[in-house]
Amino acid sequence: MKYASIIILFQAAVIPMTAATNKLRAPKRSFASSCVIQAVSELRIDPTDGVSDMRFECEMDAQDMGGVGGLVRELSGSPAQLSQLQDLINKGIIKSGESVLEHSAGLPFDDMTVFVPPGLSIAASVRNNPNRRRLAVVTGKKPILVIKVRDSNGLARVETPAVISDDIFGTYGDPVNLKSQMSACSFGQLNITAGNPPTNSAGANEVAPGVIEVNITISLNNTSTVVRNAATAAAQAKLNFTLPGPYQQVMYVLHSCIVGCGWAAYAGVNSWYSVYQGGYYKQAGVQMHGMRNSI
Description:
The protein has 295 residues and is α/β, with parallel strands linked by helices. The chain folds into two domains: 7-17 and 135-294, no CATH class; 25-132, no CATH class. The chain is 19% helix and 29% strand. The protein contains six helices and 13 strands. Strands 1, 2, 3, 4, 5, 6, 7, 8, 9, 10, 11, 12 and 13 form a 13-stranded mixed β-sheet that branches.
């Protein structure tokens, strides 16, 4: 399993229910002409729990999300359709984060889910879009953003942004972290950097090297996809660009998980994000697991 790695820390600066956050919810049932298939790889806390470590989402077009990019919906289909999807991904015919699912009659979706129409052949309804191909950075500089998130009930990690930056980048002397381990594994060829310089418009929002804080207007008592959408919209509203922007990876740091838990972290395969619950964000092994999904 591979994880994409951009770290986003959620904190409590309440964003009013306007602009991007107000567009998180689509009409009760709408239709999209297409969406980009995303395989999501979970690092299960108990690998023997019988729950699959792979699930699927679809990244929506901004025009279907009120102009907000980077938002996703869970992908729902029949067991046969999802089995076919998994098989096509395993064979490399469908590429996570690149292949587009489309249907002339439209793909129905609601606030949480994109529904594959009954009887629709996945194989016949997918096209590859090379313009979405992400070239993995395995040497040189790899800027990462961490987002610390605070929910509507005030739940956020107790660590300060400075501590989180140290836990991930070794900013203040932490000897074992994502930066040190990726450097060691690449024989010094890969340099994880903490965000962007303060002169950069994105870096100006960092409250510690590589770390920003956002407040979301919903509680953590929602699915992981809904929570990540809220955090993405809040971060993009603060940064004024669609993620990942100038970053290679983004890491979301959550206080905990309430709905659909059992994972320490998860990440989009061949994508730019990874999500961590509780104290798992600071464990180098979990950090590395997330990073490997993007390489």
